[in-house]
């Protein structure tokens, strides 16, 4: 009898447990780099930004706990959701610099949604529109609903099944990571670009709201959650890829 009661309690708690796992906030370095380890963007006020790293810097090496990380793993190390400090050696113009980035949870919405990006606002707006229009995965998740070329703003809405995006597991947008029980994703929001005050970079503001549909033993339910930042990072990477 006791075993049956425990089983019933477990089954009742399962949907909530799945949803809570998706609402966990991961640690982040707040940096976006391309395949050549050139810094494309940093979260304004994030760990990399506060450590002095700026768009256009070139990452030369990454070390973790005194161990140098190979070039193949360095990019993923910068993206890893871990708490260990990361020592980054990088080059700005012809000057070699070094800093320590301490990953933190990006709990401040302004920090999490604001990126300082390499390049000017107009060029990056063109890159953004191109990615949202032609990239096979990004265009499925962020189809353009309307555009304002004067404000350099794009509005988006989508509701897609999990299987819609083959090369990019859309459960990665949430920090739960496993995708267990995840069946669909609804996204609404906008992207906006302006030039930075000094004109050296541009600022990308990403305002997105997510709802995920979960299947469980008692049916299906929708839950709102905060993005882990993975999908936004992949969007910026796509902006600077050749589509």
From TrEMBL:
<protein>
    <recommendedName>
        <fullName>PDZ domain-containing protein</fullName>
    </recommendedName>
</protein>
<dbReference type="InterPro" id="IPR036034">
    <property type="entry name" value="PDZ_sf"/>
</dbReference>
